[in-house]
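User: Modeling request: complex.
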Amino acid sequence: MKKIIATLILLVFTFYTYNTIKGFRFGHDFLNAKTNNKKISQKIEPAGKHYLENNKLENNASNVVTSIVVSYRGFDTLGEVTVLFLAATGLGVILTLTKKEDDDENENDSSEGEPSLIVKTASRILFPLIFIFGAYVFIHGHLTPGGGFQGGTIIASAYLMMFLSYSNFKINHSIFKSIESMSGLTFISIGLVGLIGFGIFLKLNLIPMGVFNTLFSAGLIPIVYIIVGFKVGSELTAVVDSYRENW
Amino acid sequence: MVDYAILLIALPLFAAFLIPLVAMVNKNWPKYIPILVTAFNSVLSINLLLYLNAHNGTPFIVKIGGFIPPFGINLFIGYLAIILLMLISFVGLMISLYTINTVKDAESRYYMLFILLLMGVTGLVITGDLFNMFVFLEITSISAYSLTAYKRDGLSLEASMKYILIGSLASVFVLIGIGVIYYSTHTLNIADISNHINTVPKYIKMFSLSMLLIGLAIEAELFPVNGWVPDVYQASPTPVTTIFSSIVVKATIYVFFRVLFTVFRADLTVMNFVMGLGVITLLIGEISALKQVNIKRMLAYSSIGQVGLIVIAISSYSSMGVAGGIYQMINHAIFKGILFLGTAYMITSVSGTGKISDLKGIAQKMPISSFIVSFSIIALLGVPPLTGFWAKMMILSSVMSSGHQIIVALILFATVVEAVYYLKFIAVIYDSSEITNSFKSTIKFNKIVPIVLFALTIILFSVVPQFLVKFQDVLLKAANELTNVSSYISIVLGS
Amino acid sequence: MSWVETVYNYSYFVGAFGLIMIGLYAVMVKTNLIKILIGINLIDVGVNIFLVSLGYIKGKGAPIFSNASVTPANSIDPIPQALVLTAIVIGVAVTALSLSVIIKLYQHYKTLDISKIREMRW
Amino acid sequence: MNVLRTIALILSLGFLSSILFYKIRELRNLSIIASLSVALGFVIKFFGIYTGIKRAFSYKDLFYFKFDAFSNFFVVLILGVGLLAILASWNYMKEKKGETFFYVFFMLTILGMVGLVYSRDMLSFFIGWEVMTMGSFLVILQSNEKDRFKFALRYFIISLIGAYSLLWSMFIIYNKVHSFKFSAFNSSVFTKGELTTLLITISIGFLIKAAIMPFHTWASGAYSRSPLTFTAFFSGAMSKMGIYGLFIFLYGSIGLSAIYKTGYNEFFQTSYFQYTLVWLGVITAFLGTLRAILSEDIRVMLAYSSVGQLGYMLIGIGLGSTLGLTATLFHVVTHGLFKTSLFIVVAAIIHRTGKTKFHELGGLINNMPIAFIATLISIITLAGIPPLGGFATKWLLYEAMIEKRMFFATAITMLASIGAFLYAYRLIQNLFLGQRKLEHDDVKPAPLTMQIAMLIPALGMVFLGFFPNLLIKYTNLFIELINIDFFKLGVKVTDTAFTNSYGYWNAFYLGSAVVIIFIVSTIYYNLQRRAKIYKIGQLDIYTAGEYVTRETPLNYSFNFYGFIFDSLKPAIKYSVTNFITRISKEFIALSDFVRRIYTGNGQHYAIFTMIFTIITLIYFLS
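Assistant: Request completed. Predicted assembly structure:
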């Protein structure tokens, strides 16, 4: 019964979606297409085109996606960081063991599920490498594909590997928490500096823009991305840690 | 210089990130941070109101990152936003006062989530960018998911699970809608989309509209998609429930209509559909509330009904109706603030489980809060000359003049149903036969003060006619901001 | 344009909405909470693919000007990519949160069947 | 200073002092009584001056009030009855649980009523109406009865339905006329259907407050469960607000020609709507009387008696002729007087004995002589026996009905007035005469304030009985005032009599004759008694050769009209009350069914979401 209803619903949904998509022109070059529609009172170019063309002037970052994420739509990114922060916090709240349940599962047989020595050794070697790779990704966020989120995730994956190979691997919670908070505070502080100095929140061209397509370019974008990288890395690690500790 | 309006968002965010550090220094400090933040926001929003009054009431925008509107994200602040901001910060302040020493094993994370929830709602109200709105919607809902599960017992986890399930669907629909509308207009700025919306083929526009409508209807608690609401309201901690009912819904309703009115320039067919949804929501909510035994669940259904009423009012699309809807938003926020906080205060005093019958005869022990709760119920029912009546008058007259006589009759019918269960509740708390429950009586000032302040607000709105007349003026201007698309566009994009 | 042609040309859209449909089917039919969560993730992925494919322009490349051959004129629309980045992060956050809720629910009810977890109703 | 503002100020001061001194009994009561009497004096002082001249003021073009004789008529009734009721409450409510807030809410009710009576726009009328309902609801909650909540709730909910019916019709009018003023009504912009809707919704609103069948279900409970001194006000003044509303809406605002537009019957020379009203009144008068006859509880009996009496007033309204309206206004006054008096008597008896049933009481004439006199005068008025005022009402009413050729209805109404005599007789027979119960031997007379409160209306009734023409002089004026200018004045008034096309009624001569006969017969009786000194006590009888003691019940008072009850038994289960109870039960069952849509299963909610998606898509995309 449920299956039939679901199928029917999806069929109707597909029908209308199909009809809508039919109206799209896939791969159409809308950025450079000329509109001669007289209905619009003021003609404004597509935002994407504006970003592509003015990016070098305004942000001096060779990766346009990065400059959109961090600079043009930096407010979104602030929200995004907040969402991750929220998820980590909420996870901590939900997974915190209440004392009653604590007594039931008090068996600490750590030796049985322990991985083999090869795994342990390999992960010990790989850990700094992955860590550095993550750092590389977020430091070069304005030059190459990648950035704070990606780099942070890679770092978290390094910690995940350590959690998997060492069942008693522990991280220092207060340090991670402080990193999380400090990086968040720094992000907002950068925004507030712009507000105090120029009356513009999240103004990122406060420092010299540097030479295009080099590490020291794009104003504050790399710095913000480094902060984001730290934040995402510590948050995701905390998430993974919460799962591991409270399962 | 109104760029400091961004502090409405930046400061709570700053405070939320600061809380873990503060908690490391002293475990007791974090609980005062929400009070500081909401107090600051209250002052700031009053300041903005004064600014707006001094500048002919023309709404202004705040550019973030210094980019000109269609290319950067901007905030849009007018009377409507300020009314909602004041509501958010005032109710938030009251609830944070109430929350001190309330949440069991109160930890810093609760206050972080609390502040971020308020921040998300604030962002929803003032943002001028469609995708940014989505981000704030997600901030709001994710903090709401976590706060719902905060008690960590079976009920709250269950509620949180349902909320997440439906909320994810909502975000998916919103995202699809935003994608389609972006593809058709190549912009995400609300004003810019609105400027281009007439060039979009009708089929695609309507598809996008229905996607956004579904997604936002879920958040705005409209009928067929509000299954999560009663559970979430019942299971979450009472201060959080109060925020859901008083603030979050109001902000989502605002977003709902901002999208319909401004982004899509919705026409009468859409508005009739929405009005139908509102009517069904109103009826189902009120009728379902009739046989509830749990007080919070009853209030939850009542909130659903009130949402229906507000939606009916705003979807009438006349300035009077929209103004009435906004007025009812304010009223309902205050009434539900009193009702949730007051009943929670009573329930904690009798150590009950939240059943209505637990509160039998409580009025003899707690006369002040019982009186205020009854008073707010009477005001909520729209007994003249209290404030609920004027809002209802505005709503009814506008719905009537838009030619929906039957809907007026249905609204009145729903109010009668509402009166039945609310008065039954009053009858229970004033029942003098005997008190079955043990009662531990200590007047807690931090609990009674918010309730009393809320009640004073009702009296202020009801009794001072000069204030009322001026207030109506502001309401009409706020309504105009919501309905007048061309002025929105010209303010954001420049003429 | 026949429907075969549409499907062929719009394979990204078809794939995206196919994923969405599969996810929705899982959400509506499967009773196991983990499977429902997988369904939600499928929908998320589908929507993300949909968003990315909206910005695609035939014959153009990624908008990263690291060498001179890439110019604004032959780059695709960068905005959907930025949006997808945000959407992915949000999806991850929701998934993480809901997993934790499911874990706790399982510990509490000893079941993952959504139709049995209904203490609150009516 | 404006008269209206002064009255509002005086009454508000009384209200405020009732709040301020809510714990100090003497100060509170005195200030309330003072404010009410000053206001009453004020109204009476300017009553004549502003007769015909309309003093008005408006506020913000939204609220519009008028000080004219028609309103003053009702205001005098409200303030007078209110004053008596509060006077009686001084002793009645003393040291009772709800005493402190009783006065606050009582004053609130009076404020609302005065406001609605003076208002000349629908908005302020409605506000006053709701304040009145709310205040009376709260007063009912101050009584000591156990089941007061149940009945108060029922009263409030049904009143709310009425009020919202009224509100709806107000919006229908406002939507067309764009003004809430009564005088702004313009029947030409309405279609016939709309007018019919208007008339029906308006009359539902007011018939509920007047407790006309089938909307009377709240009345017996609310009347009998509220503090009885308030019931005196409730039945004596407040129920008339429904009548006042019908006056002002139907004849003052909408107008007779617009009512005729909805359908006119040549034979009865009236519209179908009015014809229905008349029949509702007749049925109410008959069935209300019947229920009163069958009641065993004094309070319930008086409650149903009120229902029946309101039926008479509705008949007059429905007729819409000068004679009918005069009869109604006249009956408003007489009913106000005798119901106030009767309820205060009953309050005094219950206050002293604690008993509420007929068969638990008896022989109280020696304990409460003043109450007996008041009761006697009241029931003579109630039953419509000449020479007291009740007769004039009936006379005018029958004439008005016959004028419209409603002979069958007249017959039933006459039957109902005989019934009124039946139940009124019980008040004398079962309460004051007969055998006194043992435990009531040392029952003290009614408290002083209550004695005053019950005697003043009795005096008023006697006065009205002798000089009905004085009142009718005014009622003619009022009917003129509410813009029914196309009525020819059918009732002519001389100094001692009034005349209409059907006859002539000189109450003074008849009353004097009765008094003279009474005096003569008293003298004769006393002379006779002096001749044969032979006193028979109550116990000077034998049954089956046994002496009768005080314990033996001699009085036939339980199930007094049992034979009527037995014969009507099959019909009684079909009462409206049962019907409404059933409907409300069904509705609650429905609500239980509706809320099951929230199944609690998260997956169902997801499916609902998808169904909603499909519906939305189908609605918008096809």
